[in-house]
Amino acid sequence: MDPILALKNLEVKFNTLGGVVNAVNGVSFSVEPGKTLGIVGESGCGKSVSVLSIMRLIPEPPGKIVGGKVMFRGENLLEFNQLKMESIRGARIGMVFQDPMTSLNPVLTIGRQISEAMIVHKGLSRAEAEHHSIEILNLVGIANPKQRIKEYPHQFSGGMRQRVMIAMALSCSPDILIADEPTTALDVTIQAQIVDLTKRLQSELGMAVIWITHDLGVIAELADRMVVMYAGYVVEEADVFNLYENPNHPYTLSLLKSLPRIDSRRGGERLATIPGFPPDATTNMPGCPFAPRCNFAVDHCLHENPPLVLINSDHKTACWVDITTGKER
């Protein structure tokens, strides 16, 4: 099946007082219709910048997309002018941002904010848009939607605000939903509800989903395929079950070892931690950016950054060492 969206060698830089920040360094990934792609990695690895580039929401300046393509249904979104891009945002690609409190306008009612996209993109009247807003709020599990569309963001809990953001993103029935760490500020019970809601809506509406998080437990529940990012690079990509069962990059392995488990495999041993810190994004390291923190690093790792290559039919990794044997590839 052809992908509905594909990033090809995307590069994004930011000019700051401290120097040029290399935020995204040749990132490539794709998502197929009706499937969920999970993107994981620690803070600052380039996850959010990658998807903001899809939506063309990188502030310029200081940011700049300096290379690559974002192919959506055969067209490169990076070649679109602002007017054409506005016809894509919200209508064909919906996005749920990290913090629903700051993403929602505090002085406009929920109904007004959900209706706006339908009025702009679908040409509905305000009464028609309000009717559809009530249906969408009901779809995402908000009780008494006829009353609640008249209320303001501060009258909703964190979990309810996130449901409102999902309702806004779905209001025009997009082909793709991008969710940028939508459960980060929520407790685990509400997180589970948002994940279940997303799975149900995807099944009902048939849309593709890109889900960004640093929580590997959420991705295991939700995604079909998974991309692991580090320091602006994709370091591993695979089917989610294959990646959890057979991680082939030291960073992925370290992330999985840091997860608490309810089975008995650990035998009482402590959770693993990753020593050190991510590299300074304003410096151009000659080797693998993870090498200073890696237990498997060899001399080659310090002098040349490995490319992302296929190691079997459906699994890619960027590492000079086969971590299953400890030998250089």
Q: Which short descriptors sum up this protein?
A:
single chain, globular, alpha/beta, 14 strands, four-stranded antiparallel β-sheet, 329 residues, eight-stranded mixed β-sheet
Tell me what you see in this structure.
The chain is of the alpha/beta class and 329 residues long. Helix content is 32%, strand content 25%. It is built from twelve helices and 14 strands. The strands form three sheets. Strands 6-7-8-3-9-10-12-11 form an eight-stranded mixed sheet, sandwiched between helices. A hairpin with a 2-residue loop joins strand 4 and strand 5. Helix 4 packs parallel to helix 7 and helix 5 crosses helix 7. The protein is globular and about 65 Å long. The mean pLDDT is 87.
Radius of gyration: 21 Å
Total E-strand runs: 14
What is the mean predicted local confidence, pLDDT? 87
Number of helices: 12
Strand content: 15-25%
Taking pLDDT < 50 over at least 5 consecutive residues as the criterion, the unreliable ranges are none
Structural class: alpha/beta
Helical content (DSSP H or I, runs of 4+):
25-40%
**Biggest sheet descriptor:** 8 strands, mixed
Strand order of the largest sheet: 6-7-8-3-9-10-12-11
The N- and C-terminal alpha carbons lie at a distance of: 31 Å
Q: Report the order of strands and helices.
A: EEEHEEHEHHHHHEHEHEEHHHEEEE
**Per the principal axes of the C-alpha atoms, what is the gross shape?**
globular
